[in-house]
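> Could you send the Peptidase M23 prediction when you get a chance?

Sure thing. Input:
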Amino acid sequence: MLERVLVVCALLLATQTAGAVTIYRFTDANGVVSFTDQPVRGAEVMKLRERMVERIDSQVRLSVKKANGSDSLYVRNDLYAPVEVELRLAGVKNVVGVSDQVIRRTIAARSNERLIALSPQVASKAMAYKPSLRSIVGDPQRGVSASGFAYRYPLPWVGGPFRISQGANGSYSHVGAKSRYAIDIAMPEGTQIIAARGGTVIKTENAQSGRGANPSGNFVRILHDDGTMGVYLHLQQGSVSVKEGQRVVVGTPLGRSGNTGNSTGPHLHFVVQRNVGLALESIPYEFSQPVQSLPNFAIGGN
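Output:
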């Protein structure tokens, strides 16, 4: 099994170094699933993207409080991290108190803040407006100035040695702003994953099995003291051992490596991100000790 995983990971690395390489997935007569860069009868083209999806809608909510003919619009942030929000008001009629129909604000962790108060221009007539809220975790004022190279990350696992199966800017799946500088490390399922930097656990998922509904699989997101965030993805179902709001230090056990979400084989996807203004962006970082890349079997490497 591990041999097959290593070959799969090597194919992923090939797409990173050789440009637009197509990867095929096929099942042989014995039911064994394999991957190759050569077209095979009955094979399907793999179309995988590391789309990091973390729904925070239920933890960052808009509410309207009515009193004395006025409406106060509040945002409640139940996350253990600040969030940047954007409130848009459409179809505004008979309203006083809104000079700009787009309002951006950073809401502190675990807080409930009023964004705006609206009153009717003509008291005898009803106000009309349609609010919509968008939110991104992190404080853009802190995150935008943070540099990943200011801190060298200890290896976020126990055991090994393991190797990088896809590095930064890997064209197979590390293509979007959120994942551009992510690193995938091939390792057996059940490998202990530990915190590579101290901070506060702000988001976890632990119940996903197999590919599931979330491309990130099971994961842990940690807010560092400089405003950056470390994210540990594709963890084993039921293995996450930390809770949201918990403070961790370097070496704190977080969970165990798995093969959940958009994953073609057991590995850890580790990425450092920051909020750059209503958008998460991965930033380059370095481990504190060398980690080798897998040999590039798919294009004749040794």
